[in-house]
Amino acid sequence: MIEKLKIQIQTFFHYSGLLHELVVRDIKVRYRRSFLGLLWTVLNPLLMMTVMTVVFSTFFKNNIANFPVYLLIGNIVFSLNSDSTSQALMSIVGNGGLIKKVYIPKYLFPLSKVMSCLVNFGFSFIALIIVMIVTRSQFHIAMLLSIVPLFYILLFSTGLSLILSSVTVYFRDVAHLYSVFILVWMYLTPIFYPFDILPHRIQTIINFNPMYQYIKYFRMLIMDGTLPGLRANIFCFGLGVITLIFGVFLFQKLQKKFILHI
Fold first, then answer.
1. What's the pLDDT tens digit per position in 200-255?
2. Where does the pLDDT of residue 53 fall: very low under 50, low under 70, confident under 90, or very high at 90 and above?
3. At what angle are helices 230-254 and 210-219 packed, to 10 degrees?
4. Rounded to a whole number, what is the distance in angstroms from the first to the last CA of the chain?
């Protein structure tokens, strides 16, 4: 078991250069023929925040302090997971021609989607800082710990990406079903509305929503300047690790017959 893990780690580092190239390719393809290029990763969340603030702040202005920051945190964190998993979903099928020609560790394709979305998240975080400056929000030292929940959500998103990309090879309908699931998931996550307005029974259910817990973690660090307790860290980290382990296990089990279905 240890020897097998050692080989997997060596293989990963051996192909790390290829992973880098795949991430660069994904970013270039996304902004091909775009005049503003990567600048859209800053402008897009700002424009989205402006529109949604105008629409929803009227309803929730008395419930949420600094609604623009509250909204933007929820939006960019949820988008990190939804974008990476949605793009990773078709990553094996979409690279079928390359997989048939040469040997490449297949997990690099969904992983590259997660990494490229991480780059986008970095630029979106710049947009968040701009909004905080404009709205004269207080900057807390705890904000520097945002790397912690970011690590947690990357574990979760990578595991989910491996699951979706491997299952989609066998069941293409997953791509259509997941787009609907993401929409439902978004509305079940307090991104633009306060958690407190929900009935107690619904709050109990939402507390088990992974994305709500990750978004809540970010908001506590950035808006409140407080560090979530041990229970929140165990939940967020544990869920990420469990999802990643299951994703790796399922991917390795199903990848043996990918070539027959792509």
1. 888 999 999 999 999 999 999 999 999 999 999 999 999 999 999 999 999 999 98
2. low
3. 140
4. 30
Q: Do the beta carbons of residue 149 and residue 142 sit within 8 Å?
A: no
Q: What angle do CA 169, 172, 173 make, to 5 degrees?
A: 145
Tokens 């089990």 — which residue?
Answer: 253
Task: Pick the closest to residue 13 from 150, 108, 134 (CA basis).
Answer: 108
- In the chain, the number of structural domains is 1
Provide the CA 58 distance to its chain's centre, in angstroms. 29
User: Which has the closest alpha carbon to 21: 119, 116, 142?
Assistant: 116
CB environment 139-158: b (16+ within 10 A), e (fewer): eeebbebbebbbebbbbbbb
In the block, residue with structure tokens 């078709």: 90
- Alpha-carbon distance of 170 to 44, in angstroms, equals 34
Query: pTM to 2 decimals?
Result: 0.89
- Record the tokens describing residue 136, joined without a space: 């004269």
Which amino acid, one-letter code, is at 23? V
Among 88, 75, 96, 79, which residue's Cα sits nearest to residue 23?
88
Count CB-CB contacts under 10 A for residue 51.
10
Q: Please give the structure tokens belonging to residue 77.
A: 């964190």
DSSP state letters, 112-154: HHHHHHHHHHHHHHHHHHHHHHHTTPPPPGGGGGGHHHHHHHH
In total, the chain counts a number of residues equal to 262
Domain housing 131: 2-260
Give the type of residue at 163. I
- Give the whole-angstrom CA distance, residue 75 versus residue 182: 13
Amino acid at 160: L
Q: How many CB atoms lie under 10 A from the CB of residue 176?
A: 9
